[in-house]
Specification:
mainly alpha; Ferritin; about 0% strand; single chain
Length: about 160
């Protein structure tokens, strides 16, 4: 007996969802590690605000890693757990030595550009598999990420630009 026997999700289509979730898992793991580096290395004006914000973001990324891995398991897949494999698979690149707040925020915004694009694609794949739970999970991520992008763009903008 398998979990999929009870979920009314097409098994062959679920495999495509699992592949997409494993891709997101790898991307989120590298993103999490990048955020830890930003948190540790940030200096200068805005330190107190960004140090706390980066901690909030990496805690959120860690929670999403766990949600993605558990969803992969529910769909009959096996989540990757080796960082060496994440680095091979991830589209997010490792980054280190970033001490400037605006450089770190630029990297986070580019990461969200990628994650949002991939999550939107995976929502379509999940819907084709009748997997409304994965689609809903990712839609929740998008809701949070779109607001965060708006806030980060505002934070990173020059206040005196006309």
């Amino acid at each position: 007996m398998k979990t999929l026997d009870f979920l009314h999700v097409n098994e062959s289509k679920a495999a495509a969802v699992v592949a997409g979730l494993n891709q997101l898992l790898a991307d989120f793991q590298v993103y999490y590690t990048n955020l830890r580096g930003f948190h540790w290395e940030i200096k200068g004006h805005g330190f107190f605000v960004l140090h706390s914000k980066f901690e909030e973001l990496y805690d959120d990324a860690a929670a999403k890693v766990d949600e993605l891995a558990e969803r992969i398991l529910m769909l009959g897949g096996t989540p990757e757990n080796r960082f060496s494999e994440y680095l091979k698979k991830a589209h997010i690149q490792e980054i280190s030595g970033v001490a400037c707040g605006s450089d770190a925020v630029d990297n986070i915004l580019e990461t969200y550009r990628h994650l949002i694009r991939e999550e939107r694609k995976l929502i379509d794949v999940a819907n084709e598999a009748n997997d409304v739970v994965t689609a809903d999970l990712l839609t929740g991520y998008l809701k949070e990420q779109e607001k965060l992008v708006w806030m980060l763009v505002a934070w990173n903008s020059k206040c005196c630009e006309k």
